[in-house]
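Help needed: design a sequence for this.
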C-alpha cells in the first residue's frame, strides 16, 4: 500500500499562481484613476472584485492542495493525460492574438483567435468557426466602440 503525500505540488503551484494573479490585479488597480463621478462605484470596483475573487479561489485551492489535493476532480481517462497539442494551440492562439491585434485589428485578430481556440477544443468545421468568430468579434467591436465609446484597434479593416 502506498501512501499519498498530503501536498500535491503541481496543484499547489497553480493555486499559488492564481492567488498571485489576484494580488497583482488588486495592486495594479491602484494605478487606475478614480475620476470625479458622483457614484460610489468607480472604475476600480470591478478589478478589486476580480482580484479578490482570484485571491479567495487561490487560497481555497492552496488549502486543498496541501491537504491531499483538489476536490471533485473527475477521475476518468480523459483527465489522466494532458493534451499537449491542445495546450500548445491555445497558448499559441493567445500569444498570436496579442501580437497581431495592433496591426491586424480587433476583428481579424479575434476571429483568428476564435478559430484557433475552437480547433484547440477539437472543432473541425473551419467555415463555421470563421463565420461564428467573425460575427462575434464584429459584434463585440461595435458594442465596445459605438455603445461604450472605447477605442479598439481597427487595423486592416479600418478603412471599411
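Sure. Designed sequence:
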Amino acid at each position: 500500500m502506498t501512501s499519498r503525500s498530503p501536498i500535491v505540488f503541481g496543484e499547489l503551484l497553480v493555486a499559488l499562481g492564481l492567488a498571485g494573479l489576484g494580488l497583482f490585479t488588486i495592486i495594479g488597480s491602484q494605478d487606475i484613476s478614480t475620476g470625479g463621478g458622483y457614484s460610489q462605484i468607480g472604475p476600480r470596483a470591478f478589478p478589486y472584485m476580480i482580484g479578490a475573487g482570484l485571491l479567495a479561489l487561490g487560497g481555497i485551492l492552496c488549502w486543498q492542495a496541501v491537504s491531499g489535493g483538489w476536490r471533485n476532480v473527475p477521475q476518468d481517462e480523459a483527465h489522466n493525460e494532458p493534451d499537449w497539442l491542445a495546450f500548445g494551440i491555445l497558448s499559441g492562439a493567445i500569444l498570436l492574438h496579442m501580437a497581431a491585434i495592433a496591426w491586424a485589428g480587433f476583428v481579424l485578430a479575434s476571429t483568428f483567435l476564435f478559430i484557433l481556440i475552437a480547433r484547440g477544443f477539437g472543432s473541425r468545421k473551419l467555415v463555421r468557426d470563421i463565420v461564428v468568430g467573425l460575427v462575434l468579434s464584429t459584434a463585440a467591436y461595435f458594442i465596445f466602440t459605438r455603445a461604450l465609446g472605447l477605442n479598439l484597434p481597427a487595423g486592416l479593416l479600418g478603412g471599411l
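The two ends are 68 Å apart (CA to CA).
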